[in-house]
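When time allows, look over one protein, given below as sequence and tokens. The question is which stretches look regular and which look disordered:
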Amino acid sequence: MNTLSAPAQNPQCVRATLDDPRWAALVARDSKADGAFFYSVDTTGVYCRPSCAARLARPEHVRFHQTREQAERAGFRPCKRCKPDQPSLAEQQTTKVAEACRIIEESETSPSLQQLARRVGASAYHFHRVFKAMTGLTPRGYAAAHRAKQVRHELGRGGTVTEAVFKAGYNANSRFYQQSNQILGMTPTTYRAGGRGTPIRFAVGECSLGSILVAESEQGVCAILLGDDADGLARDLQDRFPRAQLIGGDSTFEQRVAQVVGLIENPAAGLDLPLHVRGTAFQQRVWRALVEIPAGATASYTEVARRIGAPRSVRAVAGACAANRLAVAIPCHRVVRTDGGLSGYRWGVERKRALLEKEAASKSA
């Protein structure tokens, strides 16, 4: 029996193919489906990736296969156009980006874009675009984030600031000190001491969402926490800043809490407070994008990833939302699933729903 002979044009078989979700991926030439399955065409005797640019075959001539080995055992040969027997373009790009990240992390000084591209065998322009799409950062931004991570690690080990700076790959102390407050949120010496003695004022209040804690460092509001228990919020703050000098808010500082509560109860009022935002370069890009989502509107994780120029970093966007410590001020509650459903929220999905309902009512008022 010839395994490549065309099957009878049974209407039920054609309907089964058309109803198969893999057919829709094939019609759309969806590259995200590459690797999930392969398809073969009886009339040509070849099998392809879903994203193959070849002319669309008639459904009665198409078969689906879970693996390339399955397609080849059925007697089909790989398409010369999409080369399904070789690593996909996405797989090749992932390998190159991973190799570039390794090179950056192992280099004493940050390699240039041209050096990286040459090492992984790609053009500088194309590699820059692919690297940013996959990591959410440019190669230069990734190198800066890695250096910042290294200097925090070295300072935490108790060495001198100078040793930490040079071990992290900074060429000069002056270059690091220009950025130290942004990287560490405090002076290097204070960071090395675990933030010991850093004054942080805080106060706890109540709102329609439960208890709320607002804390402020010398740089600005550094935490807005929501919960059911005021004591639990205070312990949470202490865990975040174990060596800081926590100062219970006086009547003046309690106005900060009143401002945040006012934003929760009346989103249209807005919030004009200095924020002390600490996070990786990627997280801060995500948080800036969240602030740009207007009250009463939402965006999906995919849309946020696209807005920051990193369409493949949807999971990283979700991670940045989860790492947010400034509830409401950085409105991670406005990020929803692609279907509009509410996904996990650091302070509870019910609070997320309540915030969105308040904003929608404020917008329509």
